[in-house]
Write a structure and sequence with these properties.
The protein is an alpha+beta fold. Helix content is 46%, strand content 25%. The protein binds adenosine-5'-diphosphate. Its EC number is 2.7.13.3.
Length: 262
């Protein structure tokens, strides 16, 4: 996409001169479109629980509260939708936070990866225990260099909680580490439901959730987790990818350059 502006013209008896500047605005338009799509998706997603909450509350006020069964059922729905609204607001806010963070805020830190992963696994242990899932940390001792440890914590938390959420009963989640001369990679491998090839690129989009009854009904989520992870990884100069097989499991890999640029 190109925009043009004429910045100089002159005419003489023999010839006519014109100076035109052409701007390549493809990227600017793409970013603007992404922001517009995000806003319209976000307002749609936020309206859904609000409509449910006010609708059920109104129905209760109109008389449905007199039936104890209906009262309890509607209160449950109101509570569930409020929780969903809170999660959505938190996720939308964290996307806006990452987008507004300036490059100058980055500082390179030396991180003990094995310890950091241990801490996160401890925090998620209870969630795993409910489904009898084993969490395994295979990261060797040593440190990595990274700008902003808190972003990496957020990435690990999101990937491991997905690996638990979309896992089978008594499955496992293994965190692994690999390094080449150029970059290091953290891998989160699960034994869960897996992701069809056709869905593997889409799961990183904002608000996208795999539309299978298994994931939509049984597992709560906003569809923003992996979009947040992707933004965090990119802001740390890294890359994210997934390999997966339906019914076998998925492996999410995040790679970062060994030499961080501040
Ligand atoms: P959420 O978990 O809130 O739905 P995410 O953005 O984290 O949102 O994930 C998007 C979708 O990708 C999920 O709804 C799920 O269908 C799929 N997904 C994510 N992680 C996994 C995983 N480890 N195994 C299988 N499916 C997954």
């Amino acid at each position: 996409r190109v925009e043009a502006s004429v910045i100089y013209t002159s005419t003489s008896e023999d010839f006519f001169q014109i100076l035109v500047l052409l701007y390549d605005v493809t990227e600017i338009y793409a970013v603007e479109k992404m922001q517009m799509d995000f806003l319209s998706n976000a307002s749609h997603e936020l309206k859904t629980p609000v409509t449910a909450i006010s609708g059920f509350a109104e129905t209760l006020q109109a008389g449905a509260k007199d039936d104890p069964g209906t009262l309890n059922q509607f209160l449950d729905i109101i509570q569930k939708e409020s929780k969903r609204l809170t999660e959505l607001i938190q996720d939308v806010l964290s996307i806006s936070r990452i987008e507004s963070q300036s490059v100058s805020q980055r500082k390179i830190a030396s991180i003990d990866l094995a310890e950091l992963v241990d801490e996160q696994l401890r925090a998620l242990q209870q969630m795993a225990s409910v489904k009898h899932i084993t969490l395994v940390n295979q990261i060797p001792a040593g440190t990595v260099q990274l700008t902003d440890e808190s972003k990496l914590v957020e990435v690990i938390k999101n990937l491991v909680s997905n690996a638990i959420k979309y896992n089978r009963e008594a499955g496992s989640v293994t965190i692994d580490y690999e390094a080449t001369a150029q970059d290091w990679t953290l891998k989160v491998q699960d034994t869960g439901i897996g992701i069809a090839q056709s869905e593997q690129a889409r799961i990183f989009e904002r608000f996208y959730r795999v539309d299978s009854s298994r994931t939509q009904q049984v597992v709560n989520g906003t569809g923003l987790g992996l979009a947040i992870v992707t933004e965090l990884v990119h802001s740390l100069q890294g890359q994210i990818s997934v390999t997966s097989q339906r019914g076998v499991g998925s492996t999410f890999s995040v790679s970062f350059p060994i030499k961080q640029v501040q």
